[in-house]
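A common beginner's mistake is to predict each chain separately and then try to dock the pieces by hand. The better habit, illustrated here, is to supply every component at once so that their relative placement is modeled jointly.
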Amino acid sequence: MPLLPLSRRSLLSGSAALLASTALPAHLRAQETPKKGGRLIVAADSEPRNLNPAMVASNGVFFVASKVVEPLAEASFDGADGLVPRLATSWEGSDDGLSVTFRLREGVTWHDGKPFTSADVAFSALNVWKPLQNLGRVVFKDLESVDTPDEHTAVFRFSKPTPFQLIRNALPPLTSVLPKHVYEQGEIADNPANTAPIGTGPFRFAEHKPGEYYRLERNASYWDKDLPLLDEIVYRVLPDRAAAAGALEAEEIHLAAFSAVPLADLARIAEVPGLKVVSRGYEDLTYQLVVEINHRRKELADRKVRQAIAHAIDRKFVVDTIFLGYATASTGPVPLNSKTFYTDEVPLYAFDPARADALLEEAGYPRGGDGKRFSLKLLPAPYFNETRQFGDYLRQALAVVGIDAEIVNNDAAAHQKAVYTDHAFDLAVAPPVFRVDPAISTTILVQSGLPDGVPFSNQGGYRNEAIDALIAKASETIDPEARIALYREFQKLVAEDLPLINVAEWGFVSVAHESVGNIANNPRWVVSNWADTWLGA
Amino acid sequence: MNRVRAVILRRLVGAVAVLAIVIVGGFFLLEAAPGDAVDAYVVSTGGDAGMIEELRKAWGLDRSPLARFGLYVWSLAQLDLGRSVTFSRPVLNVVLERLPNTLLLMGSATALSFSLGSLLGILAGSRPGSFRDRLLSIGSLALYAVPGFWLGLVLTVLFSVQLRWFPVSGIETIASGKQGLDRALDIGRHLVLPVASLGLIYLALYLRVMRAGMAEAWRMDFVLAARARGLPRRRIVIGHVARNALLPLVTMLGLQSAAMLGGSVVIESLFSVPGLGRLAQEAVAGRDTPLLLGIILVSAVLVVLINLAVDILYAVLDPRVGAGEAA
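With all components supplied together, the output reads:
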């Protein structure tokens, strides 16, 4: 009888497994009891030259470094003010906006065994965040000193009133704490810990094999005794997008984040048994699809022309066809998912080519013999498939209303120089990031008086005194309600005058194996510490 | 041996000129590309004007291109390839780390295309014009026309995703702790698909050169003589026809080594092999002039060395080569 190795039992269990994998919705299976141990392998598309998140607050750095180096607080879906404590256990701002007091967690040690104290926080704030960090240079510009009355209290003192709301919103991305004893000797920029970070996080940095992988190991003496659940996290460097999708299907990696699997492949990948497509976990890293405008061009300096361009764009088409539904149409400079600041009480620009035509006629640009009113240079940012595709779409949409746009394609470095330093563009397509608070990286997109060369800032020569005054006032308004009201007014003014045109906003998409638990359980999950992420069978 | 020494000397003098041209050309080509290393860097980080200025100063980009070129040539004269801006490490270390992978990939792919190509070339050329000849020639031409990345993708989907015979990417199993033979086998398994995609494309060249050489040799008098002597066909094919068609193939080997380096850029990215090709692509995207020049220099040295070896081999194989100069 042993001719047929298939027993009835194996047949039954096989079909039961089949049933389980198709009949149960993904979220039910993910709620099994978390398991300890295992090596999580994820795709990384690049290797940042610097893994110091206190110096370089960018998502590429956080993706790896946030598991090793922790901030004072992390973002949360349900915590008070959208935060949960990490290295700080509480925070309180003074009424005059001149100081913020942090209570720090006790019993925390660095990966090299030394205790974590308020001196580390003071050092990080004054020597790294304020003078060196890409975003901290803006938010902490008025930070004057940090008092450390005891080992577990740090009091930030500002020379000018600084909104506590802004500091709070900046805690997750801007306040990664570095060990003072490692960094106090020599140049911070040349410290070896910049490429082999030392922190307090749930994982220790183990090794980096350039071009191949990063490996992180479980920190057995993490301050939260029950965590982390995983033994190891390995980031495999997979620069090719098709390779990331293939590696997922071949079960060589468990997770590909940041839309490493192109949107066009998602529908097919979602059908692969054992894989899930997750679009949560990016809520606090909203990317915005924006048309940047060079106001030095006579035609574009005319508000009517800018309004005509806004009317010429079919936002629904952009969301449905370019983003395949993984985006939302924008109404203004603050995205819809910012519950605190967003307002829809702004002028809207419905898709209406006839209205656009009429506005262009009013502005004094009639169609010539060839049907064209004037020509423009359009520079789509090369960073995402979607920004390039939108460039192609915008060219066609503008042609309909008689504007002839010539597309200029550049690689990243060349685009950066052409738009932000040389101003050699008429229209550009940009993907700026909204980071929870408009003061962090959003107002800079329309504010005037910035020096040349600053990336993701107003380099279009736009100047509007009312908007500038509003930004200045909001930056020193302490009362949160008053501050929110100012930013709502800001959204209205921007939507009215259109220094730039907000088209759509999107978060990324992760593809993961069903076996990965606790994915996307906070609004910046991909760049958070993954202490409670686990790997099932 | 005088003959061989003359060949080497002539080649070395030429090599110095080649390297000089490569350095000047590489430096100013990358200089002509808009944007510098700081522009490429701040794309992923953002930052204000002060930070950008400090970075330019720290990376030595605040000097004029000519001044930087002078500095570069000066450090090169001291046999120092400089520091990579994107890796903030010495260029030589970064390049040497990747070189073995590229050599392994290139070497295996060349061996595959050379051996399989000449073998199939012999099969095709043993009866020029036959059905077998037509089939092989058309088949190899079709392979040659296929873009490398596409062939790579098809092989991945088929053999890695569907059949799961070979890994999708990488040079070895990550952090596996394998040693010795286990590790060699592991690397071998990872190399199968990239070597196949790179090697199969260049196979056609060897096949066609071999076949053409043989077709010509068939018309030679010595072949006629061999047939008149009544030698068996197999011996004529191997000993007389194929042997005489082999020389151009060796020339081809030298020429192809450069093309292979170019092809490995695509294949290394596709299969995530940490080699020189992928590094070069990253260096261009990051506007990392010292790194790119380092890669170009090492590749140029490599190509020069391979060609030198080919020339020596040629001189050994064919007594007529180099005899004139040596006399």
